[in-house]
Amino acid sequence: MQFQTNKDKILIIDFGSQVTKLIARRIRELGVYSEIITTKKFNKLKDYNNIKGLIFSGGPSSVTATKFETVSKEIFKKKIPILGICYGLQLIAKLLGGKIKPSKKRREFGRAFLFKKKTSLLTKKYLNKRKAVWMSHEDAVVKLPKNFKMVASTKDSKLTIIENTQDKIYGVQFHPEVTHTDSGKQIFKNFLFLICKIKKNWNIISQQKILIEEIKKKVKKDKVICALSGGVDSSVVALLINKAIKKNLICIMVDTGLMRKDEFKYTYKIFKKKYNLNVKLINASNLFLNKLKNIHNPEKKRKIIGKMFIKVFEKESKKYKNLKFLAQGTLYPDIIESKSSTGSKTSKIKSHHNVGGLPKKMNLELVEPLKEFFKDEVRALGKSLGLVKNINFKHPFPGPGLGIRIVGNITPEKVKILQEADYIYINELIKNGLYKKIWQAYAALLPIKTVGVMGDSRTYENICLLRAVTSEDGMTADYFSFPKDFIDNISNKIINNVKGINRVVYDITSKPPSTIELE
Ligand code: XMP
Question: Ligand 1: does its nearest atom lie under 6 Å from the Cβ of 353?
Fold first, then answer.
């Protein structure tokens, strides 16, 4: 088992909670480096150097079942401070001799209120008044393990915060990592600085220098190629590597013809003129649109776009001699292992298109400078590198682009119509101060025409669907509730300005059951 870095860290053992990543984010927001590890890997861990604290996450297992996700009891002998969250708390109690019961009466989902029973380092500056916390549990600890004390309760659950100060083991039944818990960050703050006594060691700005030095050391005088899409990840990667090796970085922009209106031209200009990067724009739109003619199936479309992209990129890269590296904007969430140890396999919903398939075929070594970072950290890095706001705060955009936002058959006419509608929609969001409140927004075209009336004439044209969602990481999402005046105006703005659309609808589904994209 190799850690990402040899820094002092807080290690989070993932028992399969949906929100484990948030724990790591909260800790990093407090200036401390943290990593997530699966139970399987944790159980094989030999080197505990640099681990200043452990957090046991929540998870779907139940310690009242015959088989449940666990860790070796030996861990309690290492004298590393531990904080258990939800299932993590129940597991600690179980392993140390407490009692846990499944209980319909004690189960709590959603908001609950904490009552202080005892002062504790964990709740310092936190429990001075009644606090709302977010719960999601059916099992509850009903008898404390030896040497543990009760710190706080809720109406339905007595042992909501527990502690063993002697061995520095703490547990909370609620989720301090989610924003629905009032001031949950204070719990982490206390655990990190009062209990683990770890020092602040994580700061994005100072990370920039280290990253640049690491790139220099790895790449030396060789050449790096990078597929630049103009999204925040590839843009930050390009700026970072450029700072390290200048002209030895070759950026390729493949215009699939399925990009947003004018976006590629804008990105190209910014990187070429403002940042003076070695960037080449390849217009492959005819190639892509020809291959996509009469293709209706979403998966087929995705596969064609992905394959074509690799083909065009590969062909271009062959023009350069001495290429040794491929730069990718892989982020930390992309490499955190899924909860395979719980046996649950994520089923494939869509085949994602990215440049991940490239290195094996092209025999290039990877440079992935962002693989320790979360998206918000990448944006902080982007800011410190002087990345323009338009790019740094841009909503995510999928690799297959408008190809999966024109449901069914793609034609150049439909692309044009959609580009215009999307352009108006996004600009209106910006003008109305809504863009930053939304995680992702886009316009799409549905494959049906409906009747309308404009002037005194009948029309028979396309339906434009608008989507806007809030989300933390794209895994789950809620539709955004627009102010009424925005909804009232946007349809007219689009229909009056885009020929080919006579009806606008708003998608009010969350994910799940829907996905964010339509295909
Ligand atoms: P879904 O539609 O699966 O999307 O809910 C979740 C997030 O992933 C983006 N997405 C993609 N990103 N290549 C990408 O780089 C893809 O093929 C792809 N498909 C979906 C989507 O825009 C959303 O942010």
Answer: yes
Check residue 281 and report its DSSP letter. E
Q: Is 177 a catalytic residue?
A: yes
Query: How far away, in angstroms, is 397 Cα from ligand 1 center?
Result: 7
Amino acid in position 248: N
Ligand 1 atom with minimal separation from the 511 CA: 5
Residue nearest to atom 16 of ligand 1 (CA): 352
User: Has residue 355 got a pLDDT over 80?
Assistant: no
As a whole-number percent, the residues of the chain with pLDDT over 70 amount to: 95
Our answer on whether the CB atom of 511 is closer than 6 Å to any ligand 1 atom is yes
Q: Is 461 a catalytic residue?
A: no
pLDDT (tens digit per residue) in 85-136: 999 999 999 999 999 998 777 688 888 999 999 999 999 999 988 899 988 8
Q: CA angle, corner 326, sides to 325 and 331, nearest 5? A: 125
- The predicted-structure confidence for 258-281, as pLDDT tens digits, reads as follows 999 999 999 999 999 999 999 999
Which DSSP category does 285 fall into? Answer: H
Cβ of 472 below 6 Å from ligand 1: no
* Catalytic residue from among 177, 263, 377, 420: 177
What is the distance, to the nearest Å, from the Cα of residue 130 to the centroid of all Cα atoms in its chain? 32
Catalytic residue flag (residue 352): no
Give the model confidence (pLDDT) of 137-147 as tens digits: 889 999 999 99
Locus of tokens 């001075």: 128
Specify the ligand 1 atom closest to the Cα of 477. 5
Q: In whole angstroms, give the CA distance from residue 227 to residue 399.
A: 11
Model pLDDT, residue 349: 75
Pairing of β 9-14 and β 161-164? unpaired
What is the Cα–Cα distance from 185 to 175, expressed in whole angstroms?
Answer: 10
Pocket test for ligand 1, best of 310, 442, 516 (most atoms within 8 A of CB): 516
Ligand 1 atom, smallest distance to 442 CA: 22
- C-alpha span between 275 and 269 (Å, rounded): 9
For atom 21 of ligand 1, which residue has the closest CA? 398
pLDDT in tens, 460-506: 999 999 999 998 778 788 999 999 999 999 999 999 999 999 999 99
Question: Please, where are the H alpha helices in 19-62?
Answer: 20-29, 39-44
**Cα angle 348, 350, 356; round to 5:** 95
| CA-wise closest residue to 258 among 462, 418, 498 | 418
Q: What is the mean pLDDT of the chain?
A: 92
> Nearest Cα to 170, choosing from 262, 76, 38, 51?
76
Query: Which tokens is 459 given?
Result: 């029309």
